[in-house]
Design brief:
heterodimer; A: alpha+beta; Sufe protein. Chain: A; three-stranded antiparallel beta sheet; 5 helices; 48% helix; B: mainly alpha; Helix Hairpins; Monooxygenase; 8 helices; globular; disordered N terminus
């Protein structure tokens, strides 16, 4: 499989690999997996009080395209609001990385990880509000 | 020859093709025997002097039997096929929502595989493979219960998706082991 230069760049120098404190009330975690390819992706976002994503980290086990997709979205997420993050489409990721059709599902994984992380932080915020 | 004379069509399920009842807990010996007999009955050598239409039909039968055999022999594929017969898609490529504890376990396994790969520790990889195969067997036992006994198809979908997942990781470990062995 010939990877695009952008995929190779993210694959060889992945941005924002790691994790954030999952017990931090301002940190949301999204974990997703694709049965067919056995890939697992964990995305964590730290959101400030104005709902802006200050930090994002990821850990992905999978092919180069899955790693590049998650690395790219951590760059995109910083500075965006959680609602803006939620609206990121897999097609934008696939286009930026020039993913071939057989690798589109890797960008779907990244989109779903964002949605899961946003849902997690919203659930946490709601629980905190109800507890207050 | 019976399969040929019966005129197999796409309307028949893979199970019917081999005279098996559609269940997850499959009689693998019967699958094997009936597959071999269809393959030998439709072997090209038997159709050297046959009419072109007969040659074509025997080729189609052989192809279908091969496809059916592959789909039924592998437990994950068999479960997926059984669910498809009920009109249920497991969406192994498109649905990425999996239980969090399952994904955590996968993440830990992947980390352990990576460590073992870096240190070229084949024993550790073999141990991980054994652990995953154990998990696969336990999922297969669950699937017998969910598909054949309880007919709880929604839960069967979840177990099938896990089995497909673990199968893929096992394939990956085997590749790493082969590579290190070489």
């Amino acid at each position: 499989m010939a990877y695009s230069d952008k995929v190779l760049d993210h694959y060889e120098n992945p941005r924002n690999v790691g994790s954030l404190d999952k017990n931090d009330p301002n940190v949301g975690t999204g974990m997703v997996g694709a049965p067919a390819c056995g890939d697992v992706m964990k995305l964590m976002i730290k959101v400030n009080d104005s709902g802006i994503i200050e930090d994002a980290k990821f850990k992905t086990y999978g092919c180069g395209s899955a790693i590049a997709s998650s690395s790219l979205v951590t760059e995109w997420l910083k500075g965006r609001t959680i609602d803006e993050a939620y609206s990121i489409k897999n097609s934008e990721i696939a286009e930026e990385l020039a993913l071939p059709p057989v690798k589109i599902h890797c960008s779907v994984l990244a989109e779903d990880a964002i949605k899961a992380a946003v849902a997690d932080i919203k659930a946490k915020q709601l629980a905190a509000k109800e507890a207050a | 020859m019976s399969a040929l004379n019966n005129g197999i069509s796409d309307n028949h399920s893979y199970f019917e093709l081999f005279g098996l009842s559609p269940q997850f807990n499959l009689d693998l010996a019967k699958l094997e025997t009936n597959y071999r007999s269809i393959q030998s009955a439709s072997h090209p050598d038997r159709f050297v002097t046959a009419l072109l239409s007969e040659k074509l039909r025997s080729m189609q039968t052989a192809t279908l039997a091969n496809e059916a055999y592959q789909a039924l022999k592998n437990p994950a594929h068999r479960a997926k096929y059984l669910l498809a017969l009920q009109g249920i898609e497991v969406a192994a490529e498109t649905n990425t929502a999996m239980p969090a504890d399952f994904l955590m376990q996968q993440m830990e396994w992947r980390e352990a595989i990576d460590d073992a790969k870096q240190s070229k520790n084949i024993d550790a990889l073999d141990a991980l493979l054994a652990e995953m195969q154990q998990e696969a067997r336990s999922l297969q036992a669950t699937l017998i219960d969910l598909i054949d006994v309880k007919k709880n198809l929604p839960l069967a979908v979840d177990a099938t998706r896990k089995l497909i997942f673990i199968d893929k990781v096992c394939v990956d470990i085997n590749k790493i082991i082969e590579h290190l062995d070489a």
